[in-house]
Amino acid sequence: MARSGVRPGRRTARTDVAGSHRRLAVGRILLVVALVMTAGKLIWVQGFEASALSNEAERQRLTRAAIPAQRGAFFDRSNNVLAFSSESRQLYANPRDLVQKQDEAHVKNPKEPTGEQYKREIARFVHERVGAALPEQAVYDVLSSGQQFTYFGPLVDPAVAREITEKYPQIGAEYRAVREYPADDVGANIVGAAKWQMDERKVKGLFGLENTLDKALAGRDGVKVSDTARGSNDLVIPGTERELEAATPGSDVQLTIDSDLQFRVQNQLASYVAESGAKGGSAVVLDAKTGEVYALANGKSFNPGDDPATWAKDALANPAVTTPFEPGSVNKVITAAGAIEHGVVRPEEVLQVPGSVKVADSTVRDAWPHGTLPLTFTGVLGKSSNVGTLMVADRLGEERFNDLVHRFGLGSTTGIELPGESAGVVPPRSSWSGTTFANLPIGQGLSMTVLQMAGMYQAIANDGVRVPPRVISAEIRPDGTRVPRPAPEPVRVVSPETAHTVRDMLRSVVQDAPHQQGTAPSAAVEGYQVSGKTGTAQKIDPACGCYSQSQHMITFAGILPADNPRFVVGLMLDEPVRNKTAAPLFHDIASFMTQRYQIPLSKEPAPVQVLQVP
Fold this sequence. Notes:
By secondary structure, the chain is of the alpha+beta class. The protein has two domains: 65-255, Penicillin-binding protein 2a (Domain 2); 259-303 and 315-472 and 486-596, DD-peptidase/beta-lactamase superfamily (Beta-lactamase, 3-Layer(aba) Sandwich). The N and C termini lie far apart (176 Å). Its main location: membrane.
């Protein structure tokens, strides 16, 4: 019998309440779990991922850019500027987008110009601001090209570029540094050249001191950041630029050269090379006491400010430093200095000099045919007798001669810090044969650069002490601190007495007395005593591997003034066909220097020396 009031299959009120409590408990548990997970995620994000997310947001919001460092300048010894950097801008555009967006703007607002009208408007404005260097039609053609991106026009002044980009934001202007050379080609073979490099976004030295000193000159770029608008990596929000790291300017470099003398020597050398029909030539002027280079020139030069495409390749080299040659008779100063130093001969001693002499299996002759001549040793130098020189060299001996060759700096680089310097070639003593000593004393069988040649005579001018030449005077740091280059270590070659005696003997070379004439009277400078030495060296004929009878290197080394040396000049001409001496070129350079540096006249003319006994 069924119970009254109870319906099968239905919950009681108590049962419903219990279910609701369970559901509520589960809901609360789920809610707590969700809150815990949310809190955990928040803690994770804020605690562990905060830095990474912040950095990511920063990267999306900020644009980093380099602050270009100012490249250091070059100055001569009187602080005349030889090279410096200036700032300019390169214009660019996106012609395709420019026209498309302007046409869209015109459709929305007919008052806006069409893309075609806008191109002409921009072209006219840019031409008016830049000038004749950028014709209006040229700008229009660029904007009509349909290119996605293009640079156009010459480099422009930053103020002009700013005026253009402010009026027409569709035209951009990119930073460029420009290396300028106000002296044009003066000293170009020393300074070298530097140009803007797109891949590195800076000026880089290509060759010369611009290249070897590039690190010091370049300085260090700084860093700046700026906020960019959302969705853009280029649109900088005005007023948000700030500097993270300041740029450090490069150091300036002061050279020892005198740009006025350098200009004169370059031009006189180039003219003389052309006049003589020579293939080339080099000239070096040294301070007789310090070895500082006042001028260093070659027959060909270039303007480092010009487009590199216009540079002649053979004008970029610096053969006065890089290209050795057989010097010929200028090398006889070694035998002369050694013979006087070791007392094997006196200047006035008379030598009976035959027309030729046999050394081992080699026969050596003088440049002019003659029978036996009674020449003083001074006359051997003054008339440049090969035979007389070898007679005295035999008295000096191979070992002492070899020692002096190296003391005079041959066979080693000078350390002048110019790129590509050659040490020349001196055969090692162990390789000498019987004929070697028939060649070396008269300047064959070994080679040297014009710089080394001038250095030999600097030792004679400086009372027997050779001071290796230098061309860099000092580095001027960005804070103005001047850091002089350390003076080179001097080398005692011969005694002061020997140097003075040889210097006096070398005055005979420019002597023009009757029957006592030297080989280079045209080198004389009125009012001044001059010491010097001519040289003529046969070149090697590649066809036979022997000495050529028609191709010669002509040299001259001179000291001014001989009685109180101030300067040494070394000259070389490569295969002149119309002049057989460089003496007139020395005269012209020396005459200019006497005026330029107000060199006092010699107290008395050089006494006439006996070269040949009657």
